Amino acid sequence: MSFDNAYESLLGHEDAHWAFGTGFSEALSGVDREFPAGVDREALAAYCLMLGDDALICSQRIAEWCSRAPELEEDIALANIALDLLGQARMLLTRAGEVLGKTEDELAYLRDEREFRNVHLAEIDCGPGPGGDFGTTIARLLVFSSWRLALFSRLRGSADPVLAAIAEKGLKELAYHRDHAAQWTVRLGDGTDESHRRMQAGLERVWPFVDELFATHEVEARLSGVAVDPASLRSEVDGVLAAVLDAAGLTRPADTKAARVAGMAGRDGVHTEVMGYLLAEMQHLHRSMPGAVW
Amino acid sequence: MTTALEVASAVRDPELPVLTLADLGVLREVSEEDGRVVVTITPTYSGCPAIDEMGADLRRSLRAAGFAEVEVRLSLSPAWTTDWISSEGRSKLAEAGIAPPARIGPRAAGPVPLNLVPPSRQVACPRCGSPNTAEISRFGSTACKALRRCNACSEPFEHVKEI
């Protein structure tokens, strides 16, 4: 019992990993893990990496607010949201790893930048670093959670039973995240001149990265019935964002698109300049001390 | 003779130790296959850090009770809901000063509703019983709890939020 010996888990078990403690190799054992007939496994793994990396990288960014949020309650809220996303990432990377023959830790800590498949919105610096602000962080969370919630809502009908189960579970969490971001957006947008200005500036900062969320990738096109076509989510997400911005008295920014490199972006492993710094921080300990346990 | 189900049902939740895993509704199934005990649990939240402790505690308790071979499986589907917290579990939470969740029933079909203001739920203060309480933060010390304050007795308290 952990209460009798709080230090036992710190000292490590024989099957412990540095990152997440014990036992998670059994994570997906309760659902039918067979791959449905006719599913392109390589594409399925790539798709799980996309959705898993979105959650992992966004979680890493949000966790940067730990101990730095404007108030204690918000510090805890952001950490909880980051933790939910980390949980989703673990399950998705585990599923990808079943095809690729790798563990979740290997995928999180030992891939290089070009192998990550997250959208740029997840990785950009929205604060507390110099690239952002609390308003920018909320703007990113609003867009990210509104989009991911719409995506998971449809993913519940996936032909892959594991993806469907992960989506069913994550959907409830994302609903809390979206409400949290929406309520802050209204509070800041409809607050003082200063809070309104900074919330609007946050929207302007993240808006160029919205278009990528709805671009259908070749992997998604290959996974009919398994993957969700993100292009099909646009009107639903636009409707949600319009309702929030309207209540907040904020203006929807003009649709500009962040530049791609030879037509490629995050889903192709082409990232923005900040991604390398993010990975350096996220992966440093595991790479410096392989097998380290906490 | 104590059954594996009785042993597993008595294991406590690492984060809400007033509840057993059975009270919390995360204990889904206990069966015996070829002399091996198979316990199936489900996480409350995707990132719940207590899930590994739950598995370790189940293995430890069952081995101590004489069940040599124990396998703990994690099931994601159907997803956990606070509606699975037993009536007894709700009473234990209230006695421990934690407001239990309201029963929410199955989720309605269609898009997930957007809440632009926190939903005004009537949550009674677990200390003085007053219904005049307010939410301080939707997120609390663990993923499953929100933080509230009683406007009558001024005490803050935790609330297991509905999911």
UniProtKB/TrEMBL annotation, chain A:
Residues that span the membrane, as ranges: none
Gene Ontology annotations of biological process type: phenylacetate catabolic process
Pfam families: PaaA_PaaC
GO cellular component: cytosol
Domain of life, source organism: Bacteria
Name listed for the protein in its UniProt record: Ring-1,2-phenylacetyl-CoA epoxidase subunit PaaC
Automatic annotation (TrEMBL), chain B:
InterPro entries the UniProt entry points to: Fe-S_Maturation_MIP18, FSCA_dom_sf, MIP18-like, PaaD-like, Zn_ribbon_PaaD
Pfam families: FeS_assembly_P (PF01883), Zn_ribbon_PaaD (PF23451)
MIP18 family-like domain: residues covered: 9-71
Domain PaaD zinc beta ribbon: 118-161
Lineage: Bacteria, Bacillati, Actinomycetota, Actinomycetes, Pseudonocardiales
UniProt protein name: Ring-1,2-phenylacetyl-CoA epoxidase subunit PaaD
